[in-house]
Amino acid sequence: MALWISEPLRSNWLDRYPSLADLALLTVCIVCFLHVPVSLIDDAFIAYRYAANLVNGSGLVFTAGQRVEGFSDLSWTLLMGVPMLFHIRPELFAIGVAASSATAALLVARRTAVSGLGVSHLTSLVVVGLAALNCDFWIMTTNGIESGLYSLVLVTSLALIILNRRSWSGLMLGFATTLRPEALALAPIAALCIGVSSLRRGDRGIASIKTGFTVLLPWALIVLTVLAWRHAYYGAWVPNTVMAKAHPLRTSDLTEGIAYVIRFAVRSAPWLLVSFSAALINAPAALLIGLGWLLLQIVIVLPNGGDWMPGYRLLSVCVPLMAVMSAFAIEHLFATRRLRVYGFAALLLTCCVVQAHNRRWTFSKGILNRHTRVEMVGIDENSFIQLADALKPALTPGDLVSPEVLGIFSYMLPGIPMHDWLGLADEHVAHHGTVYLPMYGKAEPSYSVEVVAPAVFLLIRGDNTVRMFQHDTAGRFWTRYDCWRVASKSEGVILAIRRDRAQEILAAIRQSALQIEPMTIAPN
Question: Does residue 393 come out as left (phi exceeding 0), alpha (psi in the -120 to 50 range) or beta?
Fold first, then answer.
C-alpha cells in the first residue's frame, strides 16, 4: 500500500531519512541469507589448503615442495590464512566475509543509483530490494569462494567511476584481478568507454587518452606487481588453473554456454533485460561501462560451456551491477508517479513468479556443523570426510593420493601429498593434458597412472572414468590397480588402489564404517 502514498510524502521521508532505506534493504538481505541453502563448493577447500600450508610455513603451495598455482583468486586465498592464524574454521570465516560483501554490494548499488545517477530513494530501494530476492545471488555468495567479495569490488569500481574518482576505481579494478582472471579485461573496457566519452564531449585525442589512463595506471601497477611476483614464485605468467581449463573452442561448449545464459536470464528476470534497456535511454558513459562488464561475463560463459557450480556464479556476481543500471532505466522509463506505480507492481509480480518457482529457498541449516552440509553438486561433503578419515591411518607422507574431488578430501589430509589428475594443481597435466573434460579441466591418464602412480585414486565418475583410464593406458591401468566401489555411498565413489599398497589400505578401510565391494572385471 505504501506505493500509493503521495509522491511528495514518500520523497520527503526517504530524502530526510535515507538511512531508513538502507536499513530496509539490510533487513531484506539478512532475511534472504537466512533462507538460502548454505553449501560449500569443493574448490573452496583448495584455497583453504593453500592458506593452511602458508600459515604452517610450507609456503603458498598445495603440496609441500611443489610450487604450482592451483588457484585463481590470490587475494582470497591469502585472506583465508587469517582465520587459521586464530584457529577459526576457514569455511565459516569465508561465508561470513562473502555474505557481508554481498550485502555491502547491494547497499553500494542503492547509494550509487541515488548519489551518482540521480535516482530517487524510493526507486533505488524498490529496484535493489527486489534484485536482492535473487536466490542464486545468495547461493553464489555462500559457497566458500570469492564471489561475494568480487561482486562488491565490481559494483564499487563502477560507483567510483560514476563519482569521477577514476584513480581509486583503477586500484579497485587492479584488486579485482587478484580475485578472478577475467577481471584483467575490466580496466581496459572502462578506459575505452571513458576515452570515447571524452572524445564525444569534444576533448582532443591526447586529452581523451589521458582521461582513460587515470584508470589504467593504478590498475597496471597492481597487475604488473602480481605478474612479477607470480613469475618469481611459480615460474609462470598466468595461474596454472587457467592453463588447465584452456581448450580449443567447440560447438558443444557454445551451445551449453548459450543455454547457461538463457537459464540465468530466466532466473534473474527481469533485471538482465532492464539493464540492457539503459543503453537505449541516453545512459551516461559510466553505465555503458557496467554494460560492457556484464557483456564480458557473458562472453566468458559462452566458450566455457557455463559452469558446474550452483548459483550461476559467473553471472550472478553482476546482480548489483544490474540493479544500478535497472534503477536508472526504470527511473527514466516510468517518469510519472502513475507509471512508476505500475512499473513497481510489474517488477514485484515478475520477481514473485520467478522466485516462487525457485525451490532452493529454505532455512540455513548446518552452517556450523560440517557433517550436515550438502554440496550442491550431488555429493555429500561428509562422504569425503569419512573417506579421508578411513584412509588416514594407512597413508604415510610418502604416499601420493589422487582425488577427483580435490578440495575437501585434501584439506582433511594436510600432511599427505596430493596429485591432481585434472590438472588444477599439477603443472604437467595443465600444459600437456590429452583429454579435456568440459567445465572441469584437462587430464592425461597415462601420465597419472604410469608416471605419478599414486597409491590411491578416488573417483566419482564411476565406470566412465575407469574406462577412460583403461583406454588411455592401453589396458595397463587394470594391471596396476584394483578397483573397489564404496557401497555405502550413493555418489558412485570408486577407490582405485595400487596393488603394492592394497593390503594396508584395505585393512584400514575395513576398520571404518565404509563398505566396499571389489570390481573384478574391467569395464569395457
Answer: alpha
- Spatial separation of the C-alpha atoms in residues 146 and 98, rounded to whole Å: 7
Q: Please, what is the Cα angle at 95 between 92 and 96, to 5 degrees?
A: 85
Query: Residue 512 corresponds to which cell in the numbers above?
Result: 571404518
Which phi-psi region, left, alpha or beta, contains residue 163 (left: φ > 0; alpha: ψ -120 to 50)?
A: alpha
Among 402, 387, 385, 519, residue whose Cα is nearest residue 453 = 402
* Residues 216-252: tens digit of each pLDDT: 999 999 999 999 999 999 999 999 988 888 877 778 8
470: Cβ contacts below 8 Å, ≥ 6 apart: 477, 478, 522, 523
pTM, full prediction: 0.89
CA dist 189 and 29 (Å) reads 30
Whether the pLDDT of residue 377 is over 50: the answer is no
* Neighbour tally for 344: CB within 10 Å: 18
Residue-wise pLDDT for 164-202, tens only, equals 898 999 999 999 999 999 999 999 998 888 877 766 665
CA 274: distance to chain centroid?
24
What 3-state class would DSSP assign to 19?
helix
For residues 145 and 357, the answer to whether their CB atoms sit within 8 Å is no
Query: What is the number of H-type helices and E-type strands within the chain?
Result: 26, 7
